[in-house]
């Protein structure tokens, strides 16, 4: 899904970002544009699908993934201008749009609970983290038949928000966004039950020409100002 910022006839930066960042990245881009005058286009999707698109030549300038595996893959394939860096750590929550539920981790095993939404673990790192949590708790076999997979965190959120499922796993940044804040209930998943979600950023090579606009965005994303925005959405700078 592409979301256009104001058009700039001289320069336009294309930012590809994992769907979990959808609310935070809009604000970061807005602030970046205000400060630099550089306009942009935002493309959202699952980290795996965006990586595949970049490998196939998609015209993205910078890529914000939900883990380091995909940016490192692009770097190792010679598609990145420099080694990727961690720009934030994400956090996993369970969320229900039903305010009447007594939400807690054990509710996942309750026979009265219907389907449970999870982002596709093959392409979405938050889905991978959710399955890791379920495996570590030895719960996966008991509820595997209830799992409904979203293409990305965005689709998973839609399943939860519309009550197509009883509850689901999503990013803390979702439930802390002003768009979805206050809907239903959420609980953080114990962080020791899944590997740290190291969200990585990488500059994409575009025709061998140094991309000054992309480098400026890269620098801004790693700045204290951007870190504060990310923190407001539930990300942390350090694990």
Short note summarizing the structure:
The chain is of the alpha/beta class and 239 residues long.
The H-level CATH homologous superfamily of the largest domain, spelled out, is: Periplasmic binding protein-like II
Please tally the β strands and state the result. Answer: 11
Give the strand order, joined by hyphens, for the main sheet: 1-3-2-4-11-5
- Number of discrete domains: 2
Low-pLDDT runs of 5+ residues are 1-9
CATH level 1 name of the largest domain: Alpha Beta
Going by helix content, strand content and strand pairing, the class is alpha/beta
> Given the C-alpha coordinates, what overall shape results?
globular
Main beta-sheet strand count, sense and barrel state: 6 strands, mixed
Beta-sheet strand percentage?
A: 15-25%
> Secondary-structure element order, as H and E?
EEHEHEHEEEHHEHEHEEHH
Helix residue percentage: 25-40%
CATH architecture of the largest domain: 3-Layer(aba) Sandwich
**CATH-assigned fold name of the largest domain:** D-Maltodextrin-Binding Protein, domain 2
Radius of gyration, rounded? 18 Å
Q: Count of DSSP helices?
A: 9
Mean pLDDT metric: 92
Protein model, in words:
This protein is an alpha/beta fold and 239 residues long. The protein folds into 2 domains: 125 residues, D-Maltodextrin-Binding Protein, domain 2 (3-Layer(aba) Sandwich); 103 residues, D-Maltodextrin-Binding Protein, domain 2. It is built from 9 helices and 11 strands. Strand 2, helix 1 and strand 3 form a beta-alpha-beta unit. Helix 1 runs antiparallel to helix 9. The protein starts with a strand and ends in a 7-residue tail after the last helix.
